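Q: Predict the bound structure with dihydropyrimidine-2,4(1H,3H)-dione.
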Amino acid sequence: MTLDLAVKGGTVVTASDMFRADIGIRHGRIVALAESLDAPETIDATGKLVLPGGIEAHCHIAQESATGGMTADDYFTGGRSAALGGNSSFIPFAAQHRGMGVTETLDLYDGRAAPNSPIDYGYHLIVADPTEQALTQELPAAFARGVTSFKVFMTYDLMKIDDRQFLDILTVAKTHGAVTMVHAENHGMIGWMSERLLAGGHSAPRYHAPSHPELAEVEAIHRAICLARLVDAPLVIVHVSTEAGAKLVRDARAEGAKIFGETCPQYLFLTRDDLDRPGMEGAKFMCSPPLRDAATQEALWRHLRTGTFTLWSSDHAPYRFDATGKLAKGPDATFKQIANGMPGIALRLPLLFSEGVRTGRITLPQFAALSATNAAKLYGLHPRKGTICIGADADIALWDPDLTRTVTAVDQGDAMDYTPFEGMRLTGWPVTVLSRGRKVVEGGAFVGARGAGRFLARARADMTGYAGTRAPELDPATNFGAEIAP
Ligand code: DUC
Ligand code: ZN
Ligand code: ZN
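A: Predicted complex:
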């Protein structure tokens, strides 16, 4: 068989297996796995781990917030940083704001992504204005276009939807085979706490943590799960930051519901003590939900190891530590006025490798699953992406398991002026990354091209193994019967 490229001598790691094999690539796809292959071009993977290219499934790129702030990264810098972190595709958000149509939103993001992204990309559609037109026509059209996941917010004045709107969106998503994702925090609790803290003169970044109490997340996760179970729709609880929240996800799934959890490095590597740094430094560590404590970190590691979390995502939300970002409202801004979010797209996987795999907390196949395979299955990309098998895109990351590097902001390849993980020494880094057989990272350096990434029209989620738990109260006559596919 004629090959274009062979990756030789490495140890292939998938979500289920580890084996020694050469990988043969032709026209950007994997066409052979064998003990020994040759090709006009070869990559020596001796001593390396050969993993599916990562899929970053939660990041904010070229996205404006409802209040007008823009993320620092565009599709080029965000994609470059993702590639440096071992990813060969990503799924940022396309954010609908109130008064905007869904189709208009997706067209806008196409204009931002297509000319710039160096790696393959799709979007999750944020739905902030579920009008009748959006529900009946635009969301189905988005699905047909390959945008098969929708995100909703239970908090933020200009983004939040109410429970009835949530049920409407879940039902449309379910009808078409889309997955709904939710930012689950109780809006009333956050507003009430914030008002009291500010009235008491507590406006520094450190008060961001108490303004978003753990119970706000727990209540909202519980409610979101109940809403999804009522209509038996799949739901992803994104950025789970509490042990109690993780338990709700685990228990719902154990009962057969199609409930999935995601957590992020910041909740396992940083704590709310970081918000206490002097002056406005704490603003660098403000994200929502906020950082918690050391005991929560350990609990979340446990849940990661035991499978509660299907997804491990960076929630890269890059706002620089200057007047374009965190300090847009001046050096004395209150915690309510500072953009929420932190960067980390290049570190999602190195952090997990170093502190997860190397410490023995998770296995290499678990690492592959959390890198790519689970996201590919849940978000309709599998088996084209997310694994190493015949026929898949040649999206491959070669990892040097023994390479140690110290994290520093300038190495991130993003448009940021800080990293919250500055100074951490991590062992295990991606050294070569392929996107459809093209090198985007070589020798740890970015070699990709602006605009080389392609839009990923995604399919429906793979729900194999999830029977669902439709609420017995629902009468098939109310449109939840057989005409809605499982
Ligand atoms: N939600 C996110 O998903 N990311 C950043 C901030 C937020 O509220
Ligand atoms: Zn969120
Ligand atoms: Zn996010």
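A: The longest strand covers residues 396-406.
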